Amino acid sequence: MREVRVEGLAKTYGTLPVLADVSLRAAPGDFISIIGPSGCGKSTLFNILAGLAAPDAGQVLVDGAPAEGRTFGYMPQKDLLFPWRTILDNAALGLEVAGMRRRAARDRARPLFEPFGLAGFERAHPFELSGGMRQRAALLRTVVQDREVLLLDEPFGALDSLTRTGMQEWLEGVRARFGWTVLLITHDIREAVFLSDRVVVLGPRPARVRRVVEIALPRPRTVEMVTCPGFAAAEAELLAALREPAVEPGLREPDPREPAQQEPELREPDGEVHAGPDRSGRP
Amino acid sequence: MRRALALAAPPLLVVALLLGGWQWFVTVNDVRPQVLPSPLRVVEQGWEFRDVIWANTVPTLQVTAVGFAVSLVLGWALAILVDFSPWLRRALVPLLVASQTLPIIAIAPLLIIWFGFGLLPKVVVIALVTFFPIAIGLIEGFASTDREASNLLRSMGGGRWKEFRYVRLPGAMPYFFTALRIGITYAVTGAIFAEYVGARAGLGIFMNLQKNSFRTDLVLAAVVVTATISVVLFGLTYLVQRLVIPWHAKERRRA
Ligand SMILES: Nc1ncnc2c1ncn2[C@@H]1O[C@H](COP(=O)(O)OP(=O)(O)O)[C@@H](O)[C@H]1O
Ligand SMILES: [Mg+2]
Q1: Which of A76, A131, A133, A206 has the most C-beta neighbours closer than 10 Å?
Q2: Does B175 touch chain A if contact means CB atoms closer than 8 Å?
Q3: What is the interface pTM, i.e. ipTM, of the complex?
């Protein structure tokens, strides 16, 4: 596992500047959350890291060298489990796409079903699973690809708050056990504090890094910590950073297509709209 | 099985009522069979002439099968080409739509002039009427793929071919089976129509000949056979669908 540095990423879609200047650093084993207003470019950042979009400026370095294709494991906002595949085959998809035989790919994915709380559901189809299980299956599909850094785009955004809390505790446990390096996008300040070593606060679109907040709470994190003073202080600091008015108010022209940038909401799932029609034909 | 019965019962009941009314009307008014034979007479005469009808059913089935097979192969080939090439999509899809405006009724006799009374003109007619729903259904099915699902495949290191194989193709299968059902019913009527215009044997030409000799009862008997073929083929598509995409029905039942 090596050090990943993201330096000065910028991206414009057509005439819409989405990322202005985003830099990050992740050492092996780091858990970094990225938080920012809806539509500020968080998913765009992940698309660039995952190699799905090219940045207009900036670079992604792995131990000083430009990153190649297989550094990041990407878990998109939707679970995108395919209804025609069983959970086991969905989990093995990344390995199959990478050229592994189906049998071998399944054998690689199978042992993870137990720690992911999916034991017994290998042959189920996605529509037979609860929301939390679907997210764990999607995470399993990401993890089994054995990439150096996991990119989790609002993995718990669509879950009810009880399930979400359970998933956060579970993630804290498995992450420690497997030693993953994680970048997590979230809308949930509490989730960011609970899980992270560091939280990167992005400003409104076009995104730049506003503040990086170190979370000094001990690990493993437990639910009881949520009420301790250190936790509350970190939450307050993040909220303040998000609420801060834009740094260069005069420089940003108001975007006629959209009303004013929204304040981030504490526990609202991401409601952004992607450009282009939603072409998911499936329910 | 119970479900199938429950599905079939209401339409069967309606058919029974209609047939009863028809029988009653013909009997009471003493209508001449050349004008309107009673349902019982249709069945009776149909059974009487079962050998001839069967001899004409086999060629129709053959023509339908060959024509529809040609249509399937062409439809799949074209849809895949179009899915891989945006340029071909722009070039071919309008032509495909235009092909549907061809008046088959005027073209079918020309096809016979050009290709004779054999298999070929019928295959062309069937292909013309069934190719469109199949190709368009598949093209739309492929294109209905969630863009983010394509992104996921690319993030896994898959290129365009793997995207097609793992996402676009399986995702398009429900669309394909819908298109298949539309196509297969068109195929049977297309075959009958092509034969009606000119053939050596087949239910279409049989109907034409019987009509000319005022055997309305035999025309209707052939109609019954045709309808039966269509319904059976239509049902078969559901069977094949069950085998090919068993997940689809299960998912639908959940939703
Ligand atoms: N492929 C694309 N083409 C054009 N505009 C895009 C594309 N992807 C995202 N955008 C736009 O970029 C902005 C940021 O989107 P996104 O990165 O998804 O925000 P979020 O921070 O909510 O994840 C949005 O206004 C979105 O419409
Ligand atoms: Mg997003």
Answers
A1: A76
A2: yes
A3: 0.85
